[in-house]
Amino acid sequence: MFTETMLESIKKVEATRAARMGTEPRRMTAEEKSELLKQYHPDYRAEGFAEIKIGPNKGQKAPVELTRLLHSNSRLLNENINLENPAYDVDVLVIGGGGAGASAAIEAHEAGANVMIVTKLRIGDANTMMAEGGIQAADKPNDSPVQHYLDAFGGGHFAARPELLRRLVMEAPDAIRWLNKLGVMFDKDEDGTMVTTHGGGTSRKRMHACKDYSGAEIMRTVRDEVLNRQIPVVEFTSAVELIKDDKGQVAGAVLLNMETGDYMVAKAKTVIIATGGAGRLHYQGFPTSNHYGATADGLILGYRAGAPLLYQDTIQYHPTGVAYPSQIFGALVTEKVRSIGAMLVNKDGEAYAHPLETRDVSASAIIRECANGKGVDTPMGSGVWLDTPMIELLHGEGTIEKRIPAMLRMYLNYGIDMRKVPILVYPTLHYQNGGLEIGGEGYTKAIPNLLVAGEAVGGIHGRNRLMGNSLLDIIVFGRNAGKAAAAKAKEVTLGKPNLDHVQAYAKELEAAGLKEDSVSPLLLPKYARHEK
Amino acid sequence: MEKLVNVYFFGKRYQVPADLTIMTAMEYAGYTLTRGCGCRHGFCGACATIYRIKGCNELKTCLACQTQVQEGMYIASIPFFPTDKRAYEIEDLKPNQQVMMELYPEIYSCIGCNACTKACTQSLNVMQYIAYAQRGELEKCAEESFDCVSCGCCSVRCPAEISHPMVGLLARRLTGKYIAPESKHLTERVGEINRGEYDQLIEAIMQKPITEMQELYNTRDIEK
Questions:
Q1: Among A13, A178, A486, B35, which residue's beta carbon has the most beta carbons within 10 A?
Q2: Number of structural domains, chain A?
Q3: ipTM strictly over 0.85?
């Protein structure tokens, strides 16, 4: 399966393995990290970004592809939608059927609200389902929420909003407890102690996991709970625009049936945007580990309705995406592979960096190795080795099948046995660090009854996110948003619904001289050959 | 010149590059996917697919995103299959054999044909986990079914009309909630936080100036 060049390089990796086994590469100093990021992290490539010309973040930078969508008009601009005859009328409308949306719906339902979920694919078609490595919580005796705060704040370059980060770390143990109570099967020892490991940038072993199906196990459990509660889930239906009222509140959303093309109206007293990430926008041409629907829709809806973004110019590239074979190019190789002992090694068999630096640093170091001729050539570019046979040398035969079965299976499909040979990796577009800005209660800054949860939020993690803090944030902020929305719905009285903000946005675009021929939100990436 | 192969989507022939997956081959052929496409990396089960190679009798099932095309593949996607999930209140259940009898009695109609196992896109021993469920061995059922992505290929092929993914899911929830031992350190930490034992500490660190935080972060001890 490997090319001749790859096989040659594998020999060098094998030759240095024994000597590397007992060592731990030095961690970089703060100065070294800062210099590396400036030189090699994609966030520092000026050509990948453009200036936002209108709206609350006017004058700031965003990825070129996101800016184009922000500079596009609504697909409803010339549609005549009857807002007075809604197909649905609810207290809480949750847009998005991932981990955040499902958690929000469960809590809103628990609080007695009439809640529904709309999602453009199926419930569970979300990045949550694909999260592999784990979820953080400081619940061991040698750990504390304060230590968790320090790790996340430093790892995020001291840019996280303290109020949001405080909630993340303080409510983490309860999030795990809640999931466990719903029936999530965490990896535990026989006495019930959680099996926890390090992630990049953690100072305590606080990564809880469900093998390497952590997100899938969480998602299928919360999905099952949503279905048991018989919360309405309208699938294959996108929210394409928020509806506002004459008091400046949101009043629901216009929905598009993805299969028939019909528009419908959902009226709601509170709306929760839980639409997830943006990997399928393929910033700077990167492949992505994200699911098919990760196209930043919620950011567009919120922004057009007047809600500001935060840190929209910072993106997470997961250091270890699949570099080879082409069929799984860009797929995630969980950080857990490194947590349990695999080193990153260049084509000469040299462990050029500590395997558990933070993701932005680790990704930059891989890009550096490849840029300097230390990568292994592949048909799609290049990559470095992740020395997976080390895992079983360290922890015994059978460890890979037990701890990272999804990874083993994914590679075995293509004849690569990671227990015996190393695998080739290169950074893949993984996470949007930024998103819509919220306060501690989950509400957007500009609109009093619009909430955001999950990856669509900006500011929880700052300018880089640690492994295991995203599965955590969707649960913590999803639950909180559901509770808050249910309570808020009791006091909201809606005025006359309108789509005036769509017209106003069009005028702003025109005044700024912007004439994109596309409409947004994108909804699905254009992958059919004739659309590319 | 890249190598092309002939594949047949719903009976219609297309020539596609040989290194594509079934999913990317459909897109190469011009399909804009809405149904039958989810995570694209083998975790969500949206792209259940059934195929037969021209000239072979055997029917195979797979995930379109995880399977490379082959010459002569006759391909039909199964974007939805009406598996039968029973609604229940997890708080009211007890982790025993009775639960399976009540919620999924059709598992006792299994005729042991093993078509489910043969159809599993994750190579799980599906018939075995159904047998565990029949005997009320929920923990074993949970373990054996753990890697299930609910694509539903097992249920498509089952003559006893069992919704296998739903059975495994119930066993896992019962195991996670009732059978797996309690994590005492977790319960204790939640209690400490609820009693406000970390409130002052967290407030204090939130107030620290950035320079002090940088110092703390850069010099923090890291557990071995």
A1: A13
A2: 2
A3: yes
